[in-house]
Design goal:
Blueprint lengths: L1 E7 L8 H6 L7 E5 L2 E10 L3 E10 L1 H7 L12 H5 L9 H10 L1 H4 L7 H5 L2 E11 L3 H9 L6 E8 L9 E13 L1 H16 L9 H9 L10 H8 L4 H19 L4 H4 L16 H16 L3 E5 L5 H7 L6 E6 L2 H11 L6 H4 L2 E5 L14 E5 L10 H12 L3 E7 L26 H15 L1 E8 L10 E8 L4 H5 L2 H4 L1 H19 L1
Parallel strand pairs: 8-9, 8-11, 9-10, 11-12
Antiparallel strand pairs: 1-4, 1-5, 2-3, 3-4, 5-7, 6-7, 12-14, 13-14
Helix pairs in contact: 4-8, 8-10, 9-11, 10-11
Length: 514
């Protein structure tokens, strides 16, 4: 990736002042490491009349795959070959924009201790980018750079193949900008508009990108006629971040129109008084919904299956109506942490008698779990491989068979509302699946029909009209015996009564013999 910045000078203001403004000496070729390759800064020409600084970025394709898309947060489902064989090492993109901000950091801020007056004044500039992807064509390039003070914006389409002109032009252009601008303004424009024209970024766009955009767009973005397109593309079309940036840009525009500071315009809230209620965390909303369902079912003896670090057990202990609480988890470490959270070693005798922590796997039947009023599976089923769900179903609904079973799980449709969650990613790295509302309903209704339960569905968290709630909850209530129970002979269903009758008969015989 390659771009050049040139200027002309006079004996009073030599062109080599560009070296001071960029903080890179014209007589040296310098190298800088970036997260995706190596950046080189050198001067093909440096005289009092004309000076040109060049930025060359050598992309490391292995680092690009390891640290960029295809791995970790923001990963893309690109094929392995496409990650190495593509246009990234040759065409300007967000990689070059990041290198620009890294190598010319002080110049971007307009800081130059040696020539402070020169840094603040416009200067004749010529910027050339030989290969620039332009999704939208030459017309869009003109719309983006035209209103920014450049006297000349030359955009020359790059042919798909010069030997076959009938194939037409590629999506790449050669860009040349000329005009009198502050160097810092020119660099900021390039930093924002290079990835905008490419319409792609090599890294995950987090909320702090809004601040980066506003800093780089200071002085020109608020009044730009293509402000919405620039903002949307720069923020990778993340509607929440785009809306936030647009609102802040509107405040900047209003402040500039009235010659005020932004803080003077946005003064509707008294910072000394906290008038906004803090949102209740989703985990707390889940626990509240579970407690309400348990109270509605009249449960006193409760199983927390997959109790983890004991948050729900702790909440159950605060309500004296729950007389016996058992937390079960396969992880000894999680049970140890739960014990510390509950302070079992310092708990009073009466309170300690109400709670018990057991190690156990939920995909195996366990006689210790039989006879309880209710069982809770809070954010548990999605941690199992799908083929293991029938085993969990039998262990809980077929073997333990509590009167009430409560199951919560993420609603995958709601994931698009999480601004910090990359598209296509699960909410937790250990989630083996996340269901839509219909998939969860189908599974729950099948379990209820097979095991003799009725089921109701309860939304947890804000119920979005388009994608539903963030958490979906099913409340199962036992209604009848299973078909297997109905077909059992009477002697098998009431063994204790039969045993008691046999004992009584033997006693009568002994009495008669005496």
């Amino acid at each position: 990736m390659f771009l050049t910045i040139s200027t002309t000078g006079t004996p009073e203001r030599p062109a080599t002042d560009l070296g001071f403004l960029l903080h890179k000496h014209p007589d040296k070729a310098q190298t800088f490491s970036t997260s995706h390759g190596t950046a080189h800064v050198f001067y093909p020409e440096a005289s009092a009349e004309r000076c040109t600084a060049a930025l060359l970025l050598e992309v490391d394709p292995v680092a690009l795959v390891r640290r960029g898309k295809g791995k970790g947060r923001g990963g893309a489902p690109d094929s392995a070959l496409a990650q190495y064989v593509n246009d990234r090492p040759y065409a300007a993109s967000s990689l070059l924009a990041v290198a620009l901000s890294t190598v010319f950091k002080s110049a971007l801020r307009g800081v130059c201790a040696a020539l402070p007056g020169r840094a603040e004044a416009p200067m004749p500039l010529r910027v050339e980018v030989p290969a620039l992807p332009a999704r939208g064509g030459a017309e869009l390039v003109g719309k983006l750079f035209g209103p920014l003070g450049w006297t000349s914006v030359e955009v020359e389409p790059v042919a798909l193949d010069e030997q076959f002109p009938e194939w037409g032009d590629s999506r790449y252009v050669q860009l040349t900008l000329e005009g009198e601008l502050r160097l810092a303004d020119a660099l900021r424009q390039l930093y924002v508009l290079l990835p905008v024209l490419d319409d792609a970024k090599h890294y995950w766009v987090a909320p702090d990108e809004v601040d980066k955009l506003l800093r780089a767009g200071e002085g020109w973005l608020a009044e730009h006629p293509e402000q919405k397109l620039i903002t949307s593309r720069y923020l990778s079309r993340r509607w929440g971040l785009t809306r936030q940036a647009m609102e802040r840009l509107e405040l900047v525009r209003l402040a500039e129109a009235d010659d005020l500071e932004v803080e003077d315009v946005d003064n509707a809230v008294d910072e000394t008084t906290d008038t906004e209620e803090k949102p209740v965390p989703l985990a707390e909303q889940r626990r509240d919904a579970i407690l309400e369902a348990l109270r509605g079912a009249g449960a006193n003896r409760v199983l927390d299956l997959g109790c983890g670090q004991g948050q729900l057990v702790q909440a159950l202990l605060k309500d004296v109506s729950f007389t016996e609480i058992v937390g079960v988890d396969v992880s000894v470490r999680a049970l140890t942490i739960a014990g510390r959270r509950l302070k079992l070693d310092r708990m009073g005798e009466r309170q300690a008698a109400r709670v018990k922590l057991l190690q156990g796997a939920l995909t195996y039947t366990d006689k210790r779990l039989a006879g309880y009023d209710a069982a809770v599976l809070c954010e548990v089923i999605e941690h199992l491989d799908l083929p293991r769900l029938p085993a969990l179903e039998y262990a809980v609904f077929g073997s333990a068979r509590p009167q009430t079973v409560i199951v919560t799980t993420p609603n995958v449709e709601y994931n698009v509302r999480w601004e910090t969650l990359p598209a296509g990613h699960a909410r937790h790295g250990d989630h083996r699946f996340e269901w839509t509302r219909q998939e969860f309903r189908t599974w729950a209704e099948g379990v209820a029909e097979r095991d003799g339960y009725g089921v109701e569905f309860v939304p947890v968290g804000p119920d979005d009209p388009e994608v539903g709630p963030p958490t979906q909850m099913a409340v199962f209530t036992r209604t009848d015996k299973t078909e297997a129970d109905k077909n059992k002979p009477e002697a098998e269903t009431e063994p204790e009564a039969e045993s008691e009758t046999e004992t009584e008969t033997e006693t009568e015989k002994e009495a008669k013999a005496a």
